[in-house]
Amino acid sequence: MRKLSVVALVILAVVLVGASGALAKKAPVDVGGLDFAGSGKAKGKIKGFGSEKGPMSHTMEFGPQGGLAANQFLLTLDDGVDQVQIPGTYALDAKNKYVLTPDPTLLEDRLTDLFWLYAGGQLPGVSIDLDVTKVKMTPKPKESKKTGAKTLKLKVKFVFDVHASGNGQTVTIKTTVSYGGK
């Protein structure tokens, strides 16, 4: 039997370790049909007008359940005074991470509500139009090896331009709303 060179052994070891790593790819936590509730911190920032920070809670429902299909979710954010619900769809990407895609029309409606909430209420004679420029929703479900209990860490960030019109003038205001909780 022929001896392998040191270089050949190293290459063989790298290939075997790489192959075993690919085979051992961790399966995602199945969130289908589950609800997660948690709390964290929210921040709303309206450029030129300041920002607000405060506690917020969330409920994340994944279908199939209660009116949600197998690939749908409903995120409810609650600051103790107002609730905002953001519906959409979810799927796994090539890296086995969940991708949340909010319904664009309903997201605009909900962000309009959030803008008026942070702005202190609607202003007479002013209308607004939104351009959503960034949506980042990062769910990180985990399952306890000991108990099997599933938890969800959630980060959400929406950046949008608000075009406010009134008295013959239009102003564009950059607005950011973010939340992180578990």
Structure description:
The chain has 182 residues and is of the alpha+beta class. The chain has one domain. Helices cover 19% and strands 52% of the residues. The chain contains two helices and eight strands, in the order H-E-E-E-E-E-H-E-E-E. A hairpin with a 6-residue loop joins strand 6 and strand 7. The chain is elongated, with a radius of gyration of 23 Å. The chain starts with 5 loop residues before the first helix and ends with a strand.
List the helices and strands and how they pair.
Elements: H1 6-23, E1 35-46, E2 50-62, E3 72-78, E4 83-92, E5 98-102, H2 104-119, E6 127-143, E7 150-166, E8 169-181
Antiparallel strand pairs: 1-2, 1-8, 2-3, 3-4, 4-5, 6-7, 7-8
Number of domains: 1
Tell me the structural class.
Answer: alpha+beta
Q: Give unreliable regions as ranges.
A: 6-24
Secondary-structure element order, N to C: HEEEEEHEEE
Q: What's the β-strand tally? A: 8
Work out the radius of gyration: 23 Å
Q: Mean of residue pLDDT? A: 85
In which order are the strands of the major sheet placed?
A: 5-4-3-2-1-8-7-6
Largest sheet: 8 strands, antiparallel
What best-fitting shape do the alpha-carbon axes yield? elongated
Helix content: 10-25%
Q: Distance N terminus to C terminus?
A: 58 Å
Number of helices: 2
| Strand percent estimate | over 45%
Summarize the structure.
19% of the residues lie in helices and 52% in strands. It is α+β, with helices and mostly antiparallel strands. The chain has one domain (29-181).
Keywords:
8 strands, 19% helix, 182 residues, eight-stranded antiparallel beta sheet, alpha+beta
